[in-house]
Design goal:
- Keywords: Membrane, Transmembrane, Transmembrane helix.
- It comes from Dreissena polymorpha.
- The chain crosses the membrane at residues 12-36, 73-97, 103-123.
- This is ABC transmembrane type-1 domain-containing protein.
- By secondary structure, this protein is mainly α.
- It has one domain.
- It has helices at residues 3-57, 62-99, 102-138.
- The longest helix has 55 residues, at 3-57.
- The protein is rod-shaped and about 85 Å long.
């Protein structure tokens, strides 16, 4: 009779170990996402510099290029805000992992998933808008 509770305890400990491994994997994925967003930010800064150079070369398209430049600056600011928010969520996730609070951790993961969906929605429609705008004015 004493053997069964010990077996249940071992299974519970194994389950907790698997949960911690899963959380560590999620933490690594979040770090990778943060690095990818930083690379995207650098790419957008490069595009911004190229647009500034194009602005100096093509004085006839000054108004249109200024508008595109403002749109890119807005995108950069929003991307910086999202990066900071992701970093904050990552730090909260690490804190919750260290404190072993699974319910709060689950809520934080759901919030992170919602943030990633909003990020996808924003970039999809933003680039669709920029494509239509550029196609209309450059064609």
């Amino acid at each position: 009779m004493l053997l069964q509770p010990l077996l249940l305890l071992r299974l519970l400990l194994l389950l907790l170990l698997l949960l911690q491994l899963l959380l560590l994997l999620l933490l690594l994925l979040l770090l990778l996402l943060l690095l990818l967003l930083l690379l995207l930010l650098l790419l957008l800064l490069l595009i911004l510099l190229l647009l500034l150079l194009l602005l100096l070369l093509l004085l006839l398209l000054l108004l249109l290029l200024l508008l595109l430049l403002l749109l890119l600056l807005l995108l950069l600011l929003l991307l910086l805000l999202l990066l900071l928010l992701l970093l904050l969520l990552l730090l909260l996730l690490l804190l919750l992992l260290l404190l072993q609070l699974p319910l709060l951790l689950l809520l934080l993961l759901l919030l992170l998933l919602l943030l990633l969906l909003l990020l996808y929605y924003y970039f999809y429609y933003y680039y669709y808008y920029c494509y239509c705008y550029c196609y209309y004015y450059f064609s």
